[in-house]
Write a structure and sequence with these properties.
The protein is an all-alpha fold. Helices cover about 65% and strands about 0% of the residues. It folds into three domains: about 1-130 and about 230-265, no CATH class; about 140-165; about 285-385, no CATH class. It is globular, with a radius of gyration of 25 Å.
């Protein structure tokens, strides 16, 4: 009986996978998964809806339905695509699954408490944190809890090590590197940034600015609201900017690097076979190419050869960089962020604004790279300076 049931299930699954409807569905998903489509038309709208409708989607019934649908799509896709299954079941990618599920749970907990607190504040009621007494003694309560968590975590890691083989490969061989060569999952965001920036920026400057921004955050943002309790209505700008950097510019890049980056670091759909022989024609174009002889590329430009003087050649990129880094923060202070500028003062606001525009440079560069194959705003190999 078990054999016959397994055979029938296998045959039914094979028939389902082979159906034209499923093939059409996988083709559509592969197409819309392209980053130039999925990032602006899926991830960004989803991020905005998460912030705007946080009181609706965090309701237990709604969030449970959304979580079930996510699990059905995430794990159910393994039954319709062997290519997707081969990605999910890799030992390297198991932490990605744990990260995504844990991230969803933590986001729901935070936004649910923020939704309840915002409603209680509007009604003049005390916060959730003020109505409960969850203080415990360090000994023995806290120590016992930590000991139990330690034993459980150790047991899980031991079972994990028995159930999944460590993704160890043969000794490094420069003549035959793996294809694709990927960093550990927690560094895939940095590896993705290397596509759009020089190594000194993607590996040193931008990560350094992330660390500096995290260190400076308590000094930049001295607003006492939201300190010790969850809220979104009282801290919309700070929470939105921080979550944008974490979710869109880090977690999404990890997802891209895990599920969409295949051999030769080309983009593949989640249900697409990773063909190592696939060649994607890509012509790197700098901003100076658009400026001087862009008429041959987009229909506008000076239609002149590139000047021999490097600074004159890169004048368009230099002007854009000066505007983006030095003038744009001033414009923000006088327009859309004027109220924030008055509240924070010049020193704290401009420190925040410079970090903000540097963060915004990454999605801008990504979109320009995907749409126009733009490589550098400023290309000065004579001075080993590329931006």
């Amino acid at each position: 009986m078990p054999t016959s049931i397994t055979t029938l299930a296998s045959e039914a699954g094979h028939a389902l996978v082979s159906s034209p409807a499923i093939d059409k569905f996988m083709h559509v998903v592969n197409y819309v998964s392209q980053p130039q489509i999925s990032l602006p038309f899926f991830f960004l709208p989803l991020f905005i809806l998460m912030l705007v409708l946080y009181k609706q989607w965090t309701r237990p019934a709604v969030s449970t339905l959304l979580f079930v649908l996510f699990c059905l799509g995430y794990f159910g896709s393994m039954a319709i695509s062997t290519d997707y299954l081969s990605i999910i079941q890799k030992p390297d990618n198991v932490p990605i699954t744990i990260m995504l599920i844990g991230l969803l749970v933590c986001l729901w907990m935070a936004f649910r408490q923020a939704a309840v607190n915002d409603e209680r504040i509007a009604q003049g009621k005390p916060l959730i944190e003020e109505t409960r007494d969850d203080k415990v003694l360090c000994w023995p309560d806290l120590v016992y809890t930590e000991l139990i968590c330690l034993l459980l975590a150790t047991s899980i890691l031991i079972l994990w090590s028995y159930g999944l083989r460590a993704p160890l490969e043969s000794p490094a061989n420069p003549a035959g590197p793996p294809n694709p060569s990927k960093a550990p999952w927690y560094f895939l965001g940095l590896q993705e940034m290397l596509v759009y920036f020089d190594p000194w920026m993607a590996g040193v400057l931008l990560p350094g600015l992330i660390v500096v921004g995290l260190i400076a955050m308590p000094f930049i943002d001295t607003n006492p609201k939201g300190n010790g309790y969850y809220t979104l209505k009282q801290r919309p700008f700070a929470i939105a900017v921080w979550l944008f950097g974490f979710l869109i510019l880090w977690v999404v890049l990890i997802v891209f690097g895990t599920f969409l980056r295949g051999p030769n670091w080309n983009f593949f759909g989640p249900y697409e076979y990773w063909d190592s022989h696939r060649q994607v024609p890509l012509t790197n174009v700098n901003l100076s190419d658009f400026f001087w002889n862009g008429k041959n590329l987009l229909g506008f430009g000076l239609n002149k050869p590139l000047p021999t003087n490097p600074f004159l050649r890169e004048i368009a990129g230099i002007v854009f960089t000066i505007f983006w880094v030095f003038i744009l923060p001033v414009l923000l202070a006088r327009t859309v962020l004027r109220k924030l500028f008055i509240e924070m003062g010049s020193a704290r606001f401009y420190t925040m604004a410079v970090l903000f525009v540097f963060m915004g440079m990454l999605p801008l560069k990504m979109v320009l790279r995907w749409v126009f194959t733009l490589k550098y705003f400023v290309y000065l190999p004579e001075f080993n300076l590329n931006l």
